[in-house]
């Protein structure tokens, strides 16, 4: 009965936490009994069961309850199978969504070697625009997960493809995550490649794309600033923030030249 399996999956994370806290008494219970169930339910015939399994998997990863060996030998292979070109459409869309969400919870080496090649393939999926849209919406997170070198070598060419996609929703999603992508690249790539690309989005034929690009204009410009002088940094949730200086904290007052410093830093960087 699907409802029974769904309820079971919802109980997996608290059981796993209990087993982790009582590990001396149950050293291998999670890996021998619960982990295989989680992996198996990722391919369940019922979509509600699969959804519960995906949510349980992400909670387990977030709580760091899955061993690295299980991630590489059990979780990643099944997600790669589900997101393969000949996979069922519904399974593929779900797998892409899970891959994007779990990227920030895995080591950079695991993401780059096991998941990044498939993500690049999915960015060019000509069959399902839903797959490309998920990739576009999560592009900044993937860039942050793999770092500058892999972003510039493998992801930026795919970002160019998505920014010129025939579906306007794809281009809009790229405009919305532009700052996060830019933040991961070098100043030279920002100037020579991303700036012309952003101009194309801000001049797009679709007004929704143009509106999203204009909303991202300020955050994109801020990535040209020198972080040490401007105090800009990216929070864990991907939003841009300004770190107050020691003088600001001690005096608990606004410095009138903060904006001037930010503008001059941006100007110098460009």
TrEMBL record:
Coiled-coil region(s): none
Q: Does the keyword Membrane apply?
A: no
Q: Which PROSITE patterns match?
A: HEAT_REPEAT
Segment Disordered: which positions?
246-270
- What ranges cover the HEAT repeats? 115-154
Query: Which keywords fit this entry according to its UniProt record?
Result: Repeat
Q: Name one GO molecular function term.
A: protein phosphatase regulator activity
The record's listing under SUPFAM superfamilies reads: ARM repeat
> Mind telling me which InterPro entries this protein's record contains?
ARM-like, ARM-type_fold, HEAT, HEAT_type_2, PP2A_Regulatory_Subunit_A
Cellular component, GO annotation? cytoplasm
State what protein this is by name: PP4R1 phosphatase
């Amino acid at each position: 009965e699907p409802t029974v399996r769904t309820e079971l999956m919802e109980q997996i994370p608290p059981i796993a936490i209990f087993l982790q806290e009582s590990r001396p008494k149950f050293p291998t219970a999670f890996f021998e009994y619960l982990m295989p169930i989680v992996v198996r339910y990722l391919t369940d015939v019922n979509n509600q069961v699969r959804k519960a399994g995906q949510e349980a998997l992400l909670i387990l990863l977030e709580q760091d309850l899955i061993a690295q060996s299980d991630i590489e030998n059990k979780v990643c292979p099944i997600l790669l199978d589900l997101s393969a070109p000949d996979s069922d459409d519904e399974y593929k869309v779900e797998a892409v969504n899970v891959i994007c969400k779990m990227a920030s919870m895995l080591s950079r080496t695991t993401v780059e070697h096991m998941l990044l090649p498939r993500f690049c393939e999915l960015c060019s999926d000509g069959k399902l625009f839903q797959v490309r849209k998920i990739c576009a919406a999560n592009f900044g997170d993937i860039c942050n997960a793999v770092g500058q070198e892999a972003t510039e070598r493998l992801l930026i060419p795919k970002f160019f493809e998505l920014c010129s996609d025939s579906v306007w929703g794809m281009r809009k999603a790229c405009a919305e995550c532009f700052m996060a992508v830019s933040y991961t690249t070098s100043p030279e790539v920002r100037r020579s490649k991303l700036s012309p690309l952003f101009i194309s989005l801000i001049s797009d034929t679709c007004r929704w794309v143009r509106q999203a690009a204009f909303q991202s204009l300020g955050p994109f410009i801020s990535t040209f600033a020198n972080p040490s002088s401007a105090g800009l940094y990216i929070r864990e949730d991907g939003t841009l923030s300004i770190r107050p200086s020691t003088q600001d904290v001690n005096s608990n007052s606004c410095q009138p030249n903060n904006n001037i410093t930010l503008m001059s830093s941006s100007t110098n960087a460009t």
